[in-house]
Amino acid sequence: MGLAPAATANAATATFQPGVRAQIPVLTFVVTNDTSEPDYDWRVEFDLPADTWPGPWPSPQVRIAIVNTATGRHITVSRASSDPYPIRPGASFQFTLPMRGTGLPTNCLVDGTVPCTQITP
User: Fold this and answer.
1) 53 belongs to a structural domain
2) Residue 8 reports pLDDT greater than 90
3) Is residue 74 part of a domain?
4) Which domain of life does the protein's organism represent (predicted)?
5) What does DSSP say about strands 106-110 and 43-49: parallel, antiparallel, or unpaired?
6) Is residue 1 assigned to a domain?
7) Residue 24, domain member (yes or no)
8) Regarding beta strands 92-100 and 53-54, do their DSSP bridges make them parallel or antiparallel, or are they unpaired?
9) What is the total count of domains within the chain?
10) Domain span including residue 16
11) Measured between alpha carbons, how far is 1 from 42 in angstroms, rounded to an integer?
């Protein structure tokens, strides 16, 4: 099943899709720049339940911050400062997080305001 961007004008949008790759649970995210300017500062934030956390970092192109909370973990994924390339207008960037546990993201937002859309496999 393909990943389609959420419908939001003039903003970055994101979708996520749970799946399995090589018998490892994964979450695949697609961030789309729906603006007319390059997006150097995109970020995706979400919460995971206490029994679920991301595995090794997915790519040198992204930076991940994990904050433990009373109910689980708050995850922030953004462009790594060492990556010189933005998401161009109309283009998308995909990253996949290997997961430990089977919980799904909640409170998923792009740039702190736009809700992510879950794609059902």
Assistant:
1) yes
2) no
3) yes
4) Bacteria
5) antiparallel
6) no
7) yes
8) antiparallel
9) 1
10) 12-118
11) 25
Residue-wise pLDDT tens digits, 29-68: 899 999 999 998 899 999 999 888 887 655 667 777 888 8
Is 121 in contact with 6 (CB distance < 8 Å)?
A: no
The DSSP code for 88 is: P
- Predicted pLDDT of residue 11: 63
Q: Residue 43's domain is classified under what CATH number?
A: 2.60.40.290
Total residues found in the chain within this entry: 121
pLDDT band at 121 (very low <50, low <70, confident <90, very high): low
pLDDT band for 3, please (50, 70, 90 cuts): very low
Residue 31 neighbours by CB under 8 Å, 6+ apart: 12, 13, 14, 42, 44, 87, 92, 93, 94, 95, 110
CB 81 within 8 A of CB 63: yes
User: What type of residue sits at position 55?
Assistant: G
CA-derived radius of gyration, the chain: 14
